Amino acid sequence: MDNLLIVTTGGTIDKVYFDDKSDYQVGEPQIGRILEELGVAFRFRVIPLIRKDSLHIGAADRELLRATIAAQDESHVLITHGTDTMVETAKVLATIPGKTIVLTGALNPARFRGSDAEFNIGTAVGAVQSLPPGVYIAMNGRIWDPLKVRKNVDANRFEATD
């Protein structure tokens, strides 16, 4: 793998809560800190592009994300994204040729003990290095085709749609 490009869009992975999961803001991206603490054996570059809950990411944000990734030299891209609209964003990014793009996020903030953030990031890093060009979602220990997955909000996990 050449350098890994990481683009952050906010979402739960970067949230900072001020009381019991009601008042929050999307804080600084956590992925660079996580990868440095884990001592990864590859180079990466982080572009903190958007800082929003994914329910607030719209068509203009998705186009900015698509254009930003398309303009970069790296062919391996990891995106941290909120889980609620991750599938919609992945579908927009499918128009970018020649890159392996993996979106991941967390169901609990990275700052929380027991968060799934590190596990999901690790799954995404393995996926982005081993998969052919295309767009994928790495959540719940699996790699998903964005056209065949949905977030089950009640169960708080991703599941196949077919």
TrEMBL record:
Any GO molecular function: asparaginase activity
Top-rank taxon, per record: Bacteria
Active site: 12
L-asparaginase N-terminal domain sequence ranges: 4-159
Entry binding sites for substrate: 54, 83-84
PANTHER family: 60 KDA LYSOPHOSPHOLIPASE, L-ASPARAGINASE
The protein's name: Asparaginase
Organism the protein comes from: Pseudoluteimonas lycopersici
